[in-house]
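Data deposition worksheet. Section B asks for the primary sequence of the deposited chain exactly as it was used as input, without tags or linkers unless they were present during the calculation. Section C holds the resulting structure in token form. Section D is free text for depositor observations; keep each observation to a single sentence. Incomplete worksheets are returned to the depositor.
Section A, Depositor: J.P.
Section B:
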Amino acid sequence: MRRTGRIALIAALVAGSMLLVGVSRAPAAESRAACAYLSNVMAAQSSGAVFLASFPTAKAEALKNVAFLYDNAVAATALIGCGHTTEASRIGDAMLAALDLDRYWHDGRLRNGYLAGAVGSGPMKLAGWWDAQRKLWAEDRYQVGSDSGNMAWAMLALLALDRASKDHRYLDGAKRIGAWLKQWRSKIGPGGYTGGIFGHETAPVVERWKSTEHNTDLFAAFSGLARESGEKAWGVEAEAARSFVHAMWRPACGCFAVGTGRDGQTLNLYLALDAQTWPLLAIPKAAQQYKGAMAPAALRVGEGFAYSEAKDGVWTEGTAQVALLLELSGRHAEAVRLIKALDAMRAPSGSYYASSTRELPTGFMLETDPTKPRQYFRVEHLAAVAWVALAQRRFNPFTGTNALP
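Section C:
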């Protein structure tokens, strides 16, 4: 079972209507293009703590002004890689505020999504829409939940801010999130961590499936906590996540399984791109041990890479991730070709579209409605431009450096 992830809400909202839908070797102008866009977006916001809209051009009510936590965490980390720590701290401050000002939970979790914009002093606002048919205010069940992987990305962003700013409020915030995540360490099957929770308070559903992507994120986040805090106990949590990722390696195909089914044990052997590239960016020596996962030919589409074996189009985020991995592995010429290929994804605003095609299949179905596919769409996407910035700046978000672990 794949992580529900940010794409689940994208597809859920799009189902009824298409719009619901370091030091660089590159020339200076090119290496700063995505960075400049992110900096300009931050400059356009009100002062203080802020969450950025994930799909700033969305017109449909269900997706307008939604700030996904993952997208904002990647954007904050990219801003640090771009040298804009002050701007990044505004997103980090929004995360810290969300830990303290949730309307219901006060146990160290964050939500998968918030209302974009400046953060006030009252309860954190969640995005939603007026459902005229049912005559009520509606909120998406994924957005109000807490995926383990998204929580890990928030930790990574806060840890990067702690290193860059020396403001240990961010380290303390990462610890609070980590303490909440510890409860999802599994005692069955290949171990690792389960998916988190899904749905509304007061009794959300506990997700029992496990994701290679999630556990990669968690390894990096817990490892970072162990380093920055000096507390060895976090290393135990990191090792549990790493052990799971290694258990997902399939020598026969030279690839990682995406995770497990709902039983937490049965492997899902489907081929998805981020389950291949992220372990190599995050886990020490994985790039040498699992070379077959670096730029899987089976997922190549034209000049870029698809989300999964469902193919059909280029996935901007994933192609940028492969470019970063190749660059940090010393394959500069290949990386440059991928980054240049992403120019076709650039929107007139300077942002980047999520995909090259109107509808990009993932090969998975919605958890909210198993009859409908999860997809990406050709709309401007915050995470897409953030990953391009990371690739252009050769900045590894899992290590906070210009190198592989």
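Section D:
The longest helix spans residues 148-165.
Residues 159 and 224 are 7 Å apart (CA to CA).
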